[in-house]
Amino acid sequence: MVEPITATYVQEDADWTITVSGQGKELTARAPGIIAARDRTDQLVEKLAPEGKSTVVHLLNGSALEFTTAYMTARLTLPEIAPLEVPPSATAPKQADAPAAEKTSGKPQLPPSKQLPKAVEDRKQDEQKADDTKAKASAKAATPPAARA
């Protein structure tokens, strides 16, 4: 029967001390975090059992469950990243250069690549005006003559 190799982890501030023991030998190392400590343990295990067929028990405070919990929490926790600051585009027109209608419309300025050609915009505005005129005319026609006077 093959003797299992035991890796014991001890946290010292932000660093971790690892003691790997098995097959009558003991190796010690330090690492700057539990993930790095786990990787360093694999390197130490290769020195103890170069044939590669070994069972390793990882212990934190004497518990394999406690080690697994701490290690998986570290692996699955995303690091805090500062918000990305996007510099203003050199090709997009500045707010001061935007037409007055866009300044007051409350709609955000689209980048040039997303803007429709001027002819299409003009046609859309003309269609909108025509629709508004038709709506007013039908509302007026629906009103009885007695109510209009």
Explain how this protein is built.
- The chain is α+β, with helices and mostly antiparallel strands and 149 residues long.
- Helices cover 42% and strands 19% of the residues.
- It is built from five helices and four strands; from the N terminus they run βββαβαααα.
- It has helices at 34-48, 64-76, 100-105, 118-142, 145-148, and strands at 5-12, 15-22, 25-31, 56-60.
- It has a four-stranded mixed beta sheet with strand order 3-2-1-4.
- A hairpin with a 2-residue loop joins strand 2 (15-22) and strand 3.
- The model has no long low-confidence stretch (mean pLDDT 80).
**Lateral strand order in the biggest sheet:** 3-2-1-4
Structural category is alpha+beta
Tally the helices: 5
- How do the SSEs run, as a string of H and E? EEEHEHHHH
End-to-end Cα distance, whole Å, is: 107 Å
Shape, per Cα inertia axes: rod-shaped
Percent range for helical residues? Answer: 40-55%
The number of strands is 4
Major sheet description: 4 strands, mixed
Whole-number mean pLDDT: 80
CA-atom Rg in angstroms: 36 Å
Sheet-strand content, in percent, reads 15-25%
Uncertain regions spanning at least 5 consecutive residues:
none
